[in-house]
Amino acid sequence: MRRKLVVGNWKMNGSIAKNKALINQLLARLQNFDAADFALCLPYTYLFQAQQLLTGTNIAWGSQNISQFESGAYTSSISAEMLKDFNCKYAIIGHSERRTISHESNEKAAVRVTRAVNAGITPIYCVGETKLERESGIAKKIVEAQVLAICNLDHTTFERAKNVNMVIAYEPVWAIGTGRAATPDEAQEMHHFIRVLIALRDEEFANRIRIIYGGSLTPNNVCNLLTMPDIDGGLIGRSALTADDFSKICEIACDTTQCLI
Ligand code: PGA
Fold first, then answer.
1. What is the residue range of 29's domain?
2. How far is the CA of 69 from the centre of ligand 1 (A)?
3. Which ligand 1 atom sits closest to the C-alpha of 96?
4. 217 in ligand 1 pocket by Cβ < 6 Å?
């Protein structure tokens, strides 16, 4: 049984005052939830605050990207080692909003994954097809290329990725922020496909890697999605911005048997 992981992707939201209120509400609600893992990925500017408020709690924190470079003259970039200074456990890599806005390729995303695992940070590597790609019948081809960028990492890097329990997030682009999540069957099919691809490289890791779903995940659809055999949690945007919604999703991740009632 893989332990479920629920990650809030705050995107470009928050303020020092709002974060404090939301984090304190979450800490109160999640304090007895011990059957799943939780994390918040905040804007870089709030990582120090996250570290202050979350150290020693059951909520981990992380960033929403990572530089492909180690250090040097790269204005505005944030390196893996810098994230380590704030004790980030996770870094989202290859989110579709990054792939679209900054034209991030699979190759660059793979370099970022390498930087993360070298620093001991767990990458949450995002994959997913656009609406047009799905409608054209090439969704699996697109996702395959994205996953292979990871499967083709050199031996040392792949072993490091295994050691930090790399996570993959399947986020169909057409489902992100649209209110129209993938159906449980659509998501399960792709999650299983991703696991099979990982198994071609490493069967043992394929069985234990957490493949989480993202894209309009809410308290209303979480039961249907998180009870599918290959869906190991969620990457959550909008529903991570309210304590009610996020904590409800976390509660269900801890005990999906309540979905059967
Ligand atoms: P959403 O975002 O939950 O608002 O669809 C998910 C994501 O982009 O990670």
1. 5-260
2. 26
3. 8
4. yes
Q: How confident is the model at residue 35 (pLDDT cuts 50, 70, 90)?
A: very high
Query: Which residue has 């990982």 as its token pair?
Result: 198
Is residue 177 lining ligand 1, measured as CB closer than 6 Å?
A: yes
Query: What CATH number did the domain enclosing 241 receive?
Result: 3.20.20.70
- CA-to-CA distance for 218 and 92, rounded, in angstroms? 20
- State the chain's maximal CA–CA distance in angstroms: 57
CB proximity list for 46: less than 8 A, separation 6 or greater: 14, 16, 19
Q: Where are the beta strands (DSSP E) in 16-166?
A: 36-41, 59-63, 90-93, 122-127
171 is catalytic: yes
pLDDT digits over 36-73, tens only?
999 999 999 999 999 999 999 999 999 999 999 999 99
The active-site residue, picked from 104, 129, 171, 251, is 171
Catalytic status, residue 104: no
Number of domains in the chain: 1
Q: How far is CA 247 from the centre of its chain?
A: 17
CA of 95 to the centre of ligand 1 (A): 10
Residue partners of 240: CB distance under 8 A and separation at least 6: 7, 8, 9, 10, 40, 246
